[in-house]
Every structure is written in C-alpha cells, then in structure tokens.
Amino acid sequence: MQKQIIYFDHAATTYVKPEVFEAMKPYFLQEYGNPSSIYSIGRSNRKAVEDARISVAKSLGAAEPSEIYFTGSGTEADNWAIKGAAQALRKKGKHIITSSIEHPAVMATCEFLKKEGYDLTIIPVDSEGLVHPDDVDKAIRPDTVIVSIMMANNEIGTIQPIKEIAQVCRKHGVLFHTDAVQAAGNIPIDVKDLGVDLLSVSGHKFYGPKGTGVLYIRKGVRIENFIHGGHQERNRRAGTENVPGIVGLAKALELAVENMDAHTRKLTSLRDRALKGITERIPYVRVNGSLERRLPGNLNVSFRFVEGESVLLMLDMKGIKASSGSACTSGSLDPSHVLLAIGLPHEIAHGSLRLSFGEINTEEEVDYLVDSLVEILDKLRNMSPLYEDFVKGENKNV
Amino acid sequence: MYSEKVMDHFMNPRNVGEIEDADGVGQVGNAKCGDIMKMYLKIEDGIIKDAKFKTFGCGAAVATSSMATELIKGKTIKEAEQITNRVVMEALDGLPPVKVHCSVLAEEAIAAALQDYRRRNGLEEDDRYKGCSGCCGGCGSVEMHHGTENDEEAE
C-alpha cells in the first residue's frame, strides 16, 4: 500500500468524478460557444447554463432557478453576500454579526468591512464549536444589516443550528447568510426549510470542478451587484459564464444529493473506524468538536506533546495526505483560530490533525492510517521534551 | 517546501535523546509558539564530546536541532559559539522564510546549554543572549541573530 496516494483531505478539495468530467467535456471541446451568442453553439451553452441553474435550484430546495447565481468560488459567494448586503443596506446601519469559527472567506470579508467603518460582533462558540441562537438574538441591534454563520465548520465539522438562527434573524428582520461550502453535498440542504436569505456553495468540495461556486439569493432579497460588466447572471455578476464549470458543479451536486444516504453511511463508518482505532491505540488524544452534530467525513484530533506539521510530514512520507491546525500550516505563529475558539490551549491546538474522508477511501486505508499514526506518534513523542517532562512528572507522582 | 537535507534530518534525526550526566542543559522556546528545543551537552577539556536533543516542533525545528548537534560535536566551546542560525541553515541547504525562526531557536538552544555549562563551572557568562527568553523569534530576534527572514529565499 505504501507510496500510493491515500487521500484523507476531502475537506480541502475533492477529485472530479468521472461522470462529472464527462458532462463537462463537450463544453471544452465542441460546444465552446459563448452563452450570450445567438448562433447554435451559443444557444446550446445558454441552455446548458440555464439547465444547470434549474438543477442546482432543485438540489438546494430553492423556490425558483432565478435565485441561483453562479460565481467563481465559494469565497466569491461569501464576499458577495456579505459586502453586497452591507452596501445595499448602508442606510439601515453598519453592524455585522458573525461567529468566531468562520472560514477566512467570511472572517476576512467582515474584517475588511470593519476597516471600512462597520461595527463587527463576533459571537463565541461553546466547547463543541456550536453557536447558540440565543447569542445571535442578543447580538442583533436595530442597525444590524447582516448575520453570517457557517452551516458546517471546515476544521472540526460542527453543524450549526442554521434553521433556528435563521428564525431569530427573520424575527428581527435581519438578513441571514450561511457559508455552506463544507455542508453542500455532505448533508441535506433545503434553503426553503432552513429559511436562509443567502447561502454559499463551492463546487470542488463535492467532486465538482475547482473555480466554481454558487450564491443562493432568496427572491426579494436585495444585495448590491458584485462584478460590473455584461448582463450575465442578470446583471449581478458579470463575466462570461464558466460553462463547463457550471455544468460540472450542477452535475456533481445532483449526484451528491442522489447518493446522500450511501455517502453519509460510508463516510460515517470510515470516520468511526478511524476514531476507534486512534483512541484505542494512542494515549493522550483529544477529539475536537461535537460527535453528534458533525459532518459525516470529518475527524479532528489533537495528539498531546507533538506538533501537527511533524505528524503531517511523516504521514506524507507514508503516502497519506491530511491536514492540521498547527501554526506551521497556518502561515503564522498562532494555531487554528477554530481550535482556540473552542477553548484548546495553544500547545494542544498545535498538535491537531484533521482527517476528512471521501468516497474513494477504504477500510484498509483507514487501518493503514491508524497503524502509521501509532508508529509516528511513538517516534515524535520519544523526541518531545514535553513528553519527557510529562513522563518524569508522572513518575514523580507515583 | 523543504530541502532534501531538511527532510533527511527530519525523518532520520541525529542525536535524539538525553545525556544522563550532561555538563550543560539548555531549553528554549515555548509550547504556546509550537516549538521547544532541549539540548544536552557532554563537555570534556573544553571540547564538546557529545550532544543530544529533544524537540517539540515542526519539521524545520527537528531538522535544525539535529543539524545543530551534528555541527557542534567535537568542537571546542569557542568554535561552538560560532555556530549561528545562518550556519545551521546553510548546512541544511536553506529553510523557507517562515521557518528561519527555527534555526534561531537552534542557535539559542546551543547558547543556553553552553550558558548552563559556564554557570555550573563558575565561568564568565556569554551576555550575547542576555534578556532573550528563547521565544520563537516573534519578538524580532530573527534580525538580532545574523539574518533576516528576507535573506533566505524559499525553495
């Protein structure tokens, strides 16, 4: 099994499913017309985009296809939703609410608006990473223009009570946006049932192509247009449509919704197998995030006395690809803001490992992962002065 | 992102462990920053006979510790004092800019262990590192220690 790639980083990105790629291919090779052109290969592309819009609307439970806007990424959708709402509602006020565990796509957008003079309230989460709707209720002010809380967290997989938060926002007449980039394709989404006003999706998290995203804008919700130019996306997001990408995203989401039950069963079973193996065979491990309200394929653990990048490098040497919330992988001296927000001390946050399982993974791969981790942790802990102090301290107490 | 030498010293670190009857022991860094290096020295007649380390940290932290111990073994104290972060970094064929602080930590670990040796033996202390708490370089000590992050280009 060694040397071949074993991929446990599906929350970072996924491969494109062959069926999805096949659906995209004609729009690269033969049907390359511009959807805005009136001749045949233009019209066929217009139809492809509008069919995709109908399909995505159905997959997300939207009332109408016109509520679906295609973007270049989930990050773009987040930027548009928050900046667009803030700009459109300038006269109402300059107050924004978000949570402490958002993806940088939301967090940095809010920070940008803060620099532009907006007030920002960051709602804390509990030790499992959950936002409490009551806290949102208390944070809303007469001048609040938008609340943005992610549907499921990218690091610890916590699934937020989006429906309840949406109800709170609606009660106050405040727009509610949710970043559903990690949720889409992994858990059911029905925008009508959730009652959200704005929702972001990214294609490459559910076996679709990179560089594709969706912003759902509920009918009647006014936000500022995002990219100025041509008439594409009803004048709201200009630029020639990424037709193969849009077709791929729609196809991938269709497949995800179709296979949701089997997908959930498989990923949950792989995740639980890894969790059992790790916690049974490796001491001093902490599981981060809620075990109940969690994405099926997400596992996030902290190994005490070791640093995450070291674990990742050693896993990589064994062909295993994963991710960490250590400072070394965040490009700063601080570890993951999500792990700090759920109350982890720095030194434990540094030793975190995120595994995100996908449809290609097998039980054999999970067993190989656990065997590898046992070996790696043994090696790194024997090298760790923190472990040495811990062992000596423990012996002293005996 | 890492050179082959860094990966070699990370995957097969030299001189990992403790020296029971060490003549000098130094520990720098802190768990908050994500890097701790502990260095043990065996010194006879002013010569470093043996060096061992334990490190909590990233790949670069382990590799710089390993390389630092290799570089000082068999050297006189005076010679070991000349092993700066730059020397360690060059011996590893460079480090990515964000990892330069790890080599600073390696230099400081050597200095701390030598300081401990001097203290135990009533020798004059090296005041180059006075006031340095052995942090992770975030305080600007990277510039203090013979090189800035910009000096070293990424792979």
CATH fold label of the largest domain in chain B: Sufe protein. Chain: A
Helix content of chain B: 25-40%
Order of helices and strands of chain B: HEEEHHHHH
Distance between the termini of chain A: 43 Å
Q: Please mark out the parts of chain B with pLDDT under 50 across 5 or more consecutive residues, or reply none.
A: 135-155
Helix percent of chain A reads 40-55%
Tell me, what's the shape of chain A? Answer: globular
Q: Quote the beta fraction of chain A.
A: 5-15%
Number of strands of chain A: 12
Strand order of the largest sheet of chain A: 2-8-7-6-5-3-4
Please give the number of β-strands of chain B.
3
Summarize the largest interface: chains and residue counts: A-B, 24 and 28 residues
End-to-end gap of chain B: 6 Å
Secondary-structure-derived class of chain A: alpha/beta
What is the typical, i.e. mean, pLDDT of chain A? 95
| Radius of gyration over C-alpha positions of chain B, nearest whole angstrom | 14 Å
- Tally of separate domains of chain B: 2
Give the quaternary arrangement of the chains: heterodimer
Report on this model:
The complex is a heterodimer of chains A (398) and B (155). With 398 residues, chain A is of the alpha/beta class. Chain A is 44% helix and 13% strand. Chain A has helices at residues 18-24, 26-29, 40-60, 74-88, 104-115, 133-139, 162-172, 191-194, 243-258, 260-281, 308-317, 327-330, 337-341, 346-349, 363-382, 385-397; strands at 6-7, 68-71, 95-99, 119-123, 144-148, 175-179, 198-202, 213-217, 285-287, 298-303, 320-321, 352-356. In chain A, strand 6 (175-179), helix 8 (191-194) and strand 7 (198-202) form a beta-alpha-beta unit. The model of chain A has no long low-confidence stretch (mean pLDDT 95). With 155 residues, chain B is an alpha+beta fold. Chain B folds into two domains: 4-120, Sufe protein. Chain: A (Alpha-Beta Complex), CATH 3.90.1010.10; 128-155, no CATH class. Helices cover 38% and strands 17% of the residues of chain B. Chain B has helices at residues 4-11, 59-72, 77-81, 85-91, 100-120, 141-144, and strands at residues 24-30, 35-44, 47-56. In chain B, helix 1 packs across helix 2 (59-72), helix 2 (59-72) packs across helix 5 (100-120) and helix 4 crosses helix 5. Chain B is globular, with a radius of gyration of 14 Å.
